[in-house]
Amino acid sequence: MERGPGRPSLQLVQQAVQALYHDPDPSGKERASCWLGELQRSVHAWEISDQLLQIHQDVESCYFAAQTMKMKIQTSFYELPTDSHASLRDSLLSHIQNLKDLSPVIVTQLALAIADLALQMASWKGCVQTLVEKYSNDVTSLPFLLEILTVLPEEVHSRSLRIGANRRTEIIEDLAYYSSTVVSLLCHCSCRPAQLHLFLG
User: Fold this and answer.
1) Which tens digits make up the pLDDT trace of 50-98?
2) What domain range includes position 175?
3) What domain count does the chain have?
4) Domain membership flag for residue 4
5) Are the beta carbons of 61 and 109 closer than 8 angstroms?
6) How far apart are CA 102 and CA 199, in angstroms?
7) Is residue 178 part of a domain?
8) 25, 68, 81, 180, 193 from 112: Cα distances, Å
9) What are the Cα distances from residue 119, in Å, to 4, 28, 45, 200?
């Protein structure tokens, strides 16, 4: 698991993730953890995480990728050029929809990533309304939609996000403006709890 100067292969990353979770040797787990930690801090983590989520080979690699994506958005959002923000948003929304049945912890990590992206992506106006209109009519999408809408207000006050007071105020006002939309969605969900329960577990 030697660390080269360039981008590691997906196969190497997957091997490291498997070692982290399944290597019976504690020293092997520690080496994998250190190597993956270095990867998470590198600029290559964006593309690798996106590809791991796209191929979704196993739960472990998807969780690592979702967690990495959340961490990168929280701490290294400045690494991305502004013109890539929209494609990252679309990619994350695609991932959470495709992986919604794989594991609740993966859905939570992706929901946090989407919420943190929305908070830092000034060009994404009316994100609450956009998400509700896009997913509220599909019962299979309601669990992850509600997860995003749950963590979004919480993340507004997160100290780990590098956003100024003005942006926080803007988001809080945006959430307040669309609060009736969210309430309507919750009322809509309460009208069909049996169906929703099947997906929320």
Assistant:
1) 999 999 999 999 999 999 999 999 999 999 999 999 999 999 999 999 9
2) 82-200
3) 1
4) no
5) no
6) 11
7) yes
8) 32, 11, 21, 22, 24
9) 34, 38, 21, 26
